[in-house]
Fold Aldehyde dehydrogenase family protein.
Amino acid sequence: MSRLTVPKTYKLYIGGKFLRSESGRSFEIVSTKGAFLANAAKASRKDARDAVKAARAAVSGWAGATAYNRGQVLYRIAEVLEGRRAQFVDEIVSAEGVSRGRAEQQVDESIDRWVWYAGWADKYAQVAGNANPVAGPYFNISVPEPTGVVAAIAPQDSSLLGLVSVVAPALVTGNAVVVVASERFPLSAISLSEVLATSDVPGGVVNVLTGSPAEIAPWLASHADVNALDLTGADALDWVDLQMSAAETLKRVITPEQGPDAAFPSLDRITAFTETKTVWHTKSML
């Protein structure tokens, strides 16, 4: 007796929940050969606002966690992703049309990237912060802190590695993220959301939207409750206009023109979305 298959429904990931778009819209995902793969939710302006609201609510708890704990959570993501490696390889092969070896390489690099950033969680402050020389009986210390809610456009030519490359560094310091996945290859992004949901990442810390970056990005760029904008994957958009919109609310911005290696792991990507707090403290005169 044959059984019915259980096709997967790819939804948005907002506030720790898997939701359909409030607009009810979806779009077809096809392989590079034109074969139907799945339907995915098409995020709307309202979905973007809901994602920002969820991220804002999650920032204080995530930023307030110890650096060691954040590192543990990021490492746990790598562990769970490693356990589902075969699934992600299959998705990338079917969606991107690459060889199995190339797909395995992308998944392995994604896992390694989570591990790399996890290792920096309790170390970046020692490198990015410092004790400043002052003329007087004081300690003057500069400490990096998260900027808040980061909106990101993931690289559009990668289904998994590109998204990990923009999300992971923002999480290290305690930011919450709203990320727009690759429009062509969104399936692995939602599968990664399932990994996040089972890896001790608090709901709302990462929110994943699928659909059209051209439609969603302007609302994120102009949203007053978004503190920073990562446009690494917005090279095909009018990103100068997005940058101008972001400037109206004094957002920090990473632009696409920073080169093809802009998403490569680096301390600069960790500190790009941090603020520096300077603390004065009197020295004991005893």
